[in-house]
Amino acid sequence: MNEKVIYVKNLVKKFGSFVANDNLSFEVSAGEIFGFLGANGAGKTTAIRILSGLSKPTSGEVNVAGYDAYRQTEQIKKNIGYMCQKFSLYEDLTVRENIILYGGIYGMSKSLIRERLADLLAKLHFQEYENRMISDLPLGLRQKLAFSVAVLHDPKIVFLDEPTGGVDPITRRQFWETIYETASRGITVFVTTHYMDEAEYCDRISIMNEGKIVALDTPEKLKKQYNAASVEEVFIKIARPN
Amino acid sequence: MINVVESSDIAKSFGPIMALDDISFSVNESEIFGFIGPDGAGKTTLFRIITTLLLPDKGNMKVLGMNATTHYKELRKNIGYMPGRFSLYQDLSVEENLNFYATVFGTTVEENYNLISDIYSHIEPFKKRLAGKLSGGMKQKLALSCALIHKPRLLILDEPTTGVDAVSRSEFWDMLNKLRQYNITIIVSTPYMDEAIRCDRVALIQNGKILSIDTPQKIRAGFSRKLFTVKAIEKYRLIKTLKKNPEVMTAYPFGDSIHVTLINDSSDNSLFEYLVKEGISDAVIQEAEAGIEDRFLELMEKA
Question: What domains can be seen in chain A, in order of their start residue?
């Protein structure tokens, strides 16, 4: 549990004179479920783009899955997965085609893709859907598949953006079980969300405000520290101190 | 007191998909009435029927005492509608959008300014900015101002808080609350259970059917079993172990704990012993009050 898969020290990212990320420092362990929170415009997206190798820091030390965020962005991309609620799968491709496409993009061998495809279909009880278009699948199934595809290549870290937004309560519960299962296998789950009830499921959360991390701890300790009944209350107290 | 909306047996299908299946409910004057349900539950379809933008296949929709199918022209003057997708003119400024909507409804911004002043004052400093360049929270405030500028008697808001951060969401609900003083009835939808408590009454909706309609308090009170929260460090192991126990009826992850119901409400002592026997010695079991989402889950299981 102590292996650090994300290591960020004094990360600064500037766009011209605008400081989007102002001296961020944090670490995330293997198998940890980490919630990355902040108001609109707080600088979360900028930080996630750096953590996923899509953008380079202005200064500071950033290491993701053992790779350097300045020089080894391609290796970073191969070792992470990403899923967002709005788009993750190609709707006009079938279940099978999506899995093969993503396997190919991640550079997996054909035999490994075949093996994972069979595993996935069996595990999700998806055999009857193998040749169905994604657009024909119920939302809940689509989401389960999107998550499975995001971890198809056994990444060290999977980034989830509002993973359970808009799904029904039973599907949401099943999804969190899948996330726990994934984390228990040692994959780090990095969650960004506006919905503080999702934050309650995380092992630790950080809250960003105006480019800085202003709070970082377990939900329980933050609630205690801010004398709040929920993470939502903590968040509002931090973002609107008066 | 009149019913602002009276829906009886409304049904609507799109091809083989039954979007709304015999929906009946009524909304009282000046209340905040919430439709709570996941994506695809039928919320938007229902709102489009209430706002006269879509015809039902069957049933009767009466809005402000008028038939929504035959009296749509009169109704549209009295309804404010904020669709789920931002649909103002992105290439007009904040001020131009507001003036445009006022003019379309034959009024002026000045005439009803008192109604929107609380909301619009937040974005007035940016009135020359194009609507497309606003942040999410500001777009939401502008859209609400535009939906209100003709002083509607009924305001329909389709997922107004989706994609908006927690602070803006909380402010938005405060604004809706303040609109009560103008006798505006508000119907609002959200996929987020925690927003139910901001409504006077809510309808839980799933797969085109209403599961329950009541005050949030009574919906929670409708939960039929004892509810326990169980916490332990190894959450995944805990939930797997709980599900193996034949005494356990349901075990769902909820934030930092697992919500558990038992076949026999009084067997929580043996549950602790069971967990210890299975090697989970740090479990903390407490009785808890059910929330809206617990009740929603229970109703879904019965459906």
Answer: 1-76+189-242 (3.40.50.300)
Q: B234 and B196 in one domain?
A: no
Chain A interface with B: residues with Cβ < 8 Å:
38-41, 138-139, 165-171, 173, 176-177, 180-181, 183-184, 194-197, 200-201, 219-220, 232, 235-236, 239-240
Chain A interface disruption, residue of B256, B280, B294, most A CBs within 10 A: B256
**Domain assignment present for B262:** yes
Whether B52 and B195 map to the same domain: the answer is yes
Residues B208 and B281 in one domain: no
Distance from CA of A143 to the nearest CA of B (A): 12
- How far is the C-alpha of A201 from the C-alpha of A33, rounded, in Å? 8
What would the mean pLDDT of B238-259 be, rounded to a whole number? 95
Q: Where among B156, B186, B215 does a domain terminate?
A: B215
pLDDT single digits (tens) B111-141: 999 999 989 998 999 999 999 999 888 899 9
For A70-119, the pLDDT digits (tens) are 999 999 999 999 998 776 799 999 999 999 999 999 999 999 999 999 99
Distance CA A177, CA A171 (A): 10
d(CA B283, CA B267): 15
If one counts the domains in chain B, the total is 2
- Report the C-alpha gap between A213 and A210 in whole angstroms: 8
CB contact under 8 A, A177 and B239: yes
ipTM value: 0.86
| Nearest residue of B to residue A240, measured between CA atoms | B167
> Is B27 within the bounds of a domain?
yes
The answer to whether B275 touches B203, Cβ cutoff 8 Å, is no
Q: Which among B37, B163, B255 has CB closest to A200?
A: B255
Do the chains contact at A40 and B236, CB–CB below 8 Å? no
Q: Write out pLDDT tens, residues B49-97.
A: 999 999 999 999 999 999 999 999 999 999 999 999 888 999 999 999 9
CB spacing of A176 vs B137 below 8 angstroms: no
pTM over 0.95: no
Task: Name the minimum distance, in Å, from the CA of B239 to any CA of chain A.
Answer: 8
